[in-house]
């Protein structure tokens, strides 16, 4: 954890409100998969939980489940922890951990994992560790749900608006563009602006690397650890279940 470089140190203040659109589009498909997770003795994991959209969905969908929400970014973890602590049900069932996923102390057994909008943060050798770890912890019938965000192969992404959120008298705008950065990586260039009427209140530019991953490669690298992938939900969601083989 000591050498974890937080790519959300600046943008974390905007991520939770701007990612809400993804959850309103695809939360239904995520919930449909989550309903099949065995929520018995083994807890569920929200990996890279951000401000807790996935955590709350897990709790809502499986009301007896215990949940571990791992979120290494302090700014996003503050949003997450406040949400959990403010809700009497969530605070009895959800534990928040601040390690990055590769160094977090995870429970020996997991009933299921939600890893939403996360996997591009991991290099191929890190993913290999994740799949091996997952294969060793999932209970029978348990699975992870991951999404592959476009582009799934390195490509230039022209600058385009990503989100627009009105809060009070201010408008929060996000733009995204990307370019290939060598190998399977791209670099995202994000711009976050806050406007009030004609006045630009603030502008932040953020750049971070992201590892692209195709469905075929996901299937191959998880199969190396005895895991099976299946697409889930609408194609645009890019969702896949990753399960131990029957
Ligand atoms: C785009 S946000 C998605 C947040 C949340 N999963 C959602 O969909 O609303 C990516 C999240 O992954 C987290 N993250 C990045 N690298 C991570 C790592 N190595 N271990 C755990 N989480 C990580 C970030 O801090 C951030 O919260």
Automatic annotation (TrEMBL):
The keyword Transferase is assigned to this record: yes
Superkingdom in the source lineage: Bacteria
Lineage start: Bacteria, Bacillati, Actinomycetota, Actinomycetes, Streptosporangiales
Record domain Methyltransferase: where: 45-142
GO molecular function, one term: methyltransferase activity
Pfam family name, one: Methyltransf_25
Keywords, ordered alphabetically: Methyltransferase, Transferase
GO biological process: methylation
Leader sequence residues: none
InterPro entries, A to Z: Methyltransf_25, SAM-dependent_MTases_sf
Organism: Streptomonospora nanhaiensis
Name of the protein in its database record: SAM-dependent methyltransferase
rRNA-binding in keyword set: no
